[in-house]
Amino acid sequence: MKKFAKLPYFVFLLVVVYSCNQTNTPKEEETILKGKASLFVDETLSPIIEDQIAVFESKYKAKITLIAKSESEVLNSLFNEKGAIAILSRNLTKEELDVFKAKKINPKITPFATDAVAFISNKNSKDSIVSLKEVIAFMQGKPTPSIKGLVFDNLNSSTVRYMKSLAGIESIPKSGVFSFKTNDEVIKYVSENTDMIGVVGVNWLSQPQPAMVQYVDKVNALKVTGLSGNESYLPSQNNIAEKKYPLARDLYIINCQGYSGLGMGFASFVSGDIGQRIILKSGLLPIRIPGRKFIIDRKSKNDEK
């Protein structure tokens, strides 16, 4: 009878062990092409990453949840181990790599495309060209008659960080520079106001959401004159490729999973042939130009008769 009395305890122990094993199954089931993962994305880059995820999920038994945040929030998510995979518009700094090194994490960094920061104006605006020197002077708080105001997505975005770095400033001026929350809000505001210059990721112009098409149609991307020379260039794919447009920036996948999971599989996909074709079609510059196949028909007209 004592042996039977102990039976419920063994059953309970087995249930506990099974439950603990069940909590680990998602990681055990995840492979480079199967499972679930969260992807923290710099929100200025979300349109092109949405396309990549849609195609990736259509080909493999994978579910990737895109979480769009400002650049600083994406980095905090990585540091706090809330998200092991991220998309950024810059590489990690030495100081940031040291943080991961202290945690015994070796991030796998994959460059996959070149994006651009675009200046936009209302279509009714008379100006079609903006000088980068004047934009920088305006960011530094200097009087610039040709620029009445700059509009950014939000103060923690990669776009603001990029322009602050160019201007060599720690904080933006208290007057003349405004911020919203998203690139869509910037585009909408500029489409309704003729005196402001918006600063957005070019991908939001080349791949607008259906609801945003009406607003994108009411703005123009401005030609930008760089810090040297007098030529001005649009943020086109060709100008980015030829390094003529002065506000180009490389994009990176930061994978901190530390095992062969979806981070590795997604990075390989985006930097591979299909992913690079998606980049090319989007108007951004892929890190590798996909090859083109030509079919040569050797039949002569006499053969066809």
From TrEMBL:
Protein origin, superkingdom: Bacteria
SUPFAM superfamilies for this protein: Periplasmic binding protein-like II
InterPro entries in the record: PBP_domain, Phosphate_ABC_transporter
Keywords associated with the record: Signal
PBP domain boundaries: 41-270
Keyword Repeat among UniProt keywords: no
The keyword Lyase appears for this protein: no
PANTHER family referenced in this protein's UniProt entry, alphabetically: PERIPLASMIC PHOSPHATE BINDING COMPONENT OF PHOSPHATE ABC TRANSPORTER, PHOSPHATE-BINDING PROTEIN PSTS
Name the record gives this protein: Phosphate ABC transporter substrate-binding protein
Native organism: Flavobacterium sandaracinum
Lineage of producing organism: Bacteria, Pseudomonadati, Bacteroidota, Flavobacteriia, Flavobacteriales
